[in-house]
Each structure stands twice: as structure tokens, then as C-alpha cells.
Write a structure and sequence with these properties.
The protein is of the alpha+beta class and 131 residues long. It is built from 3 helices and 8 strands. The chain has a single domain, classed as Nucleoside Triphosphate Pyrophosphohydrolase (Alpha-Beta Complex).
């Protein structure tokens, strides 16, 4: 057996409303925790494009994704597998009413401060607070 992947990519969807930056969180399919859209990198796509693809599938949003990451965070998948997640900003231009996983997830726009209080990962909280 080959080594299991331990690297994921994530999109941090953002928009401005009333002069204030907002971020979009989605719920995980398993336990319904608040997270940002993330997944395994696609072999045929650069990491930033893979992150944008995850945002489209998990949150129904699309827009302009930054090529350089804004940070990284870690989480534990299952009981022991540690995953490193590279985060890319996605400036949302379009939000669909229905999307691939709309019946499996909720999504919510929040201020950076409110979003940082909803997520479990301390390192993701730090990224959200630093925006």
C-alpha cells in the first residue's frame, strides 16, 4: 500500500457587505461542524484551482481565487490522521441557490470574528482573525 495523502486544499470564500469583510462557512457532512470548503488536491489542477473547485461543489460559490495561499492549518481526520490544509482566498462573484452538495450542507456568511468563534481548529481561527 502507498502512503496516504495528508495534504488538502481549502478555499476561504469572502465578500464585502456594507464595507465589512465577510467569510462563508459551510457545515461538514459528518458532524455538522462549521468549516471552510476543502478537499484533496486534483492531480490535473494547481492547488488554488482545486480549492476553487471545492468551494463550487461544497458551497455553490465561484469567483476569483488567489494563486498564493494565505495560510495553513491542521486538523485530525478520524481518530489519528493529521491533515495539513493550505488555504486560498476566493473572492466570490456568484452564489448559486442550488449546488452539488446543497442537500448535505448548510452555508452561512459571517464576519471574520464571528466565523473564528464557530470553527473548531485553533489554527483556522487564527487565519480568520488575521484577515
Amino acid at each position: 500500500m502507498g502512503k496516504k495523502k495528508s495534504k488538502q486544499v481549502a478555499a476561504l470564500p469572502v465578500r464585502k457587505r456594507g464595507g465589512q469583510l465577510q467569510v462563508l462557512l459551510v457545515t461538514s457532512r459528518g458532524r455538522g461542524r462549521w468549516i471552510i470548503p476543502k478537499g484533496w488536491p486534483c492531480k490535473r489542477l494547481p492547488d488554488h484551482a482545486s480549492a476553487a473547485k471545492e468551494a463550487h461543489e461544497e458551497a455553490g460559490v465561484s469567483g476569483r481565487v488567489r494563486r498564493s495561499p494565505i495560510g495553513k492549518y491542521k486538523y485530525v481526520k478520524g481518530k489519528r490522521k493529521k491533515i495539513d490544509v493550505t488555504v486560498f482566498i476566493l473572492k466570490v462573484k456568484r452564489q448559486r441557490k442550488e449546488w452539488k452538495e446543497h442537500d448535505q450542507r448548510q452555508r452561512r456568511w459571517s464576519t471574520c470574528k464571528a466565523a473564528s468563534q464557530k470553527v473548531d481548529s485553533a489554527s483556522l481561527r487564527s487565519i480568520l482573525r488575521d484577515l
